[in-house]
Specification:
Amino acid/polyamine transporter I; two-stranded antiparallel sheet; 2 domains; 14 helices; 484 residues
Length: 484
């Protein structure tokens, strides 16, 4: 049964428009953390591209080098099709029981609870929020590496190529954390549209620079040695290293397609007309096609440029010297993009914390009161004490953890392996089976379970490889003392 206005708690809204306080399910729309359903296919695409094109795109040259021309291209295309297919399944489960006329599910957990029950809902929540928090840690690490790269490049340019230019990541992580504390006061996805659009443009910017530099390297005849199967056993690596690297490469590529963790929350921003699932499918198609095109160019041209010696971050392979200004620009683009993507991935976490607090303490001024900051008669910002303290504590914790474990490729692979199978494949497939009442052991049921099983194997292999890589990193570097 849908809720009613009479059942909702009476809150004061800054716009004073009582008709806008409730969505089409009669659910209270407290703008401090709920979503205003006014998004379009383009705003959804911007949010998806911001979340999907991360710095993982810069590791695709390394991933292709481990898998070779054959394995790299097949893996990229396969993951893109799987992600697109299962994302559409997830979009159809947004309303329950009917994809068009059913009741809205405002989060991934609500969607799983409606279709699969409480136990699966709890499991989904653990995986989803661990993955989102891990993404934030990974983005903090990646952004600091790019900031250090700019500092290092300018150091070499000023003091000469023989200068000792090594810098700690920690000040940059702290600086980013302080900046994110301010950005974290943006209340919800709807208010993130401009930030997501800027971040999406930045992602295209640094990807294009990487592609351009790789192409220039190939044309100049400085391309690396490539093979059909990637790094060669006996020549480049041992058999064991080849296996571990292959597993980590699968995790890296899986990571580059990870946006299911925020898909439902993005869909919750869409208007009711036309139906949200149809709009979301269009956004999925636009985003996956666009990103796969860039991924293919980054992976193939990066591999052709560096060969089997491709670095974990493609931009670092071009050195810190000339054209230093162009590499600096790409790294600045990365930092701007990650600052926006950070907020996209943390919004569901903030929503969980704040909505849970509101349910538990519905009459608390600390939880519910808004304090508008005005310029003239216009409200430019509304502060909430819970939002200020909880989000600040989250950013501080994420920054501290990032400083304690500053690994790049292996950490990306671990995040990809943790989040890819359950969030991108398992829950969408199982909800689709439940929603459409697909009979056990029917042809479609068997094919869906085969997809489930194969993706589980990929995730397990990627997790094993990334854990091995992280353990090596722990032996070779000290927490809080990482320098590049």
């Amino acid at each position: 049964m849908r809720g009613s206005k009479e059942d909702a708690v009476d809150y004061k809204f800054s716009n004073g428009d009582e008709d806008q306080q409730f969505d089409d399910d009669g659910k209270l729309k407290n703008w401090s953390f709920s979503l205003n359903e006014s998004g379009t296919v383009w705003t959804a695409s911007a949010h998806i591209i911001t979340s999907i094109i991360g710095t993982g795109v810069l590791s695709l040259a390394w991933g292709t080098a481990q898998l070779g021309w054959a394995g790299g291209l097949v893996t990229l295309v396969t993951f893109s099709f799987i992600t697109y297919y299962t994302s559409n399944l997830l979009a159809d489960c947004y309303r329950f029981p009917d994809p068009v006329t059913g009741k809205r599910n405002h989060s991934y957990m609500e969607e799983v609870r409606a279709n699969l029950g409480r136990v699966n809902c709890i499991a989904c929540g653990i995986v989803q929020y661990a993955n989102l928090s891990g993404m934030v840690i990974g983005y903090t690490i990646s952004a600091s590496i790019s900031m250090v790269a700019v500092h290092k490049s300018n150091c070499f340019h000023t003091k000469g190529h023989s200068a000792s230019c090594k810098f700690s990541n920690n000040p940059y992580m702290i600086g980013l954390g302080i900046f994110e504390i301010f950005l974290s006061q943006i209340p919800n996805f709807h208010k993130l549209t401009y930030l997501s659009t800027i971040a999406a443009i930045m992602s295209f910017g640094y990807s294009s620079i990487g592609i351009g530099l790789a192409l220039a390297r190939i044309i100049s005849g400085k391309g690396g040695s490539t093979t059909l199967t990637g790094v060669e056993v006996g020549l480049d690596v041992t058999v064991a290293d080849k296996v571990w690297r292959t597993c980590r490469a699968l995790g890296d590529i899986a990571f580059t397609y990870s946006f299911s963790a925020v898909l439902v929350e993005i869909q919750d921003t869409l208007k009711s007309e036309p139906p949200e699932n149809k709009v979301m499918k269009k956004a999925n198609a636009i985003s996956v096609f666009t990103t796969t095109t860039f991924y293919m160019m980054c992976g193939t041209l990066g591999y052709a440029a560096f060969g089997n010696d491709a670095p974990g971050n493609m931009l670092t392979g071009f050195g810190f010297y000339e054209p230093f200004w162009l590499v600096d620009l790409a790294n600045i683009f990365i930092v701007i993009h990650l600052a926006g993507a950070y907020q996209v991935f943390t919004q569901p976490v903030y929503l969980l914390i704040e909505s849970s607090a509101q349910k538990k303490w519905p009459n608390s001024m600390f939880v519910n009161s808004e304090y508008p900051i005005k310029i003239g008669n216009k409200t430019v910002l509304s502060l909430n004490l819970l939002r200020l303290t909880a989000r600040t504590m989250f950013v501080v914790l994420a920054t501290t953890l990032a400083m304690a474990m500053p690994f790049f490729n292996d950490f990306l692979a671990l995040l990809g392996s943790i989040g890819f199978w359950p969030l991108t494949v398992y829950f969408p497939v199982e909800m689709h089976i439940a929603q459409r009442k697909i009979k056990r052991r029917s042809m479609k049921w068997c094919m869906l379970q085969l997809l489930n099983f194969l993706c589980l194997l990929v995730s397990l292999a990627a997790a094993a490889g990334s854990i091995q890589g992280v353990s090596q990193g722990l032996r070779t570097s000290k927490p809080f003392q990482y320098k590049v």
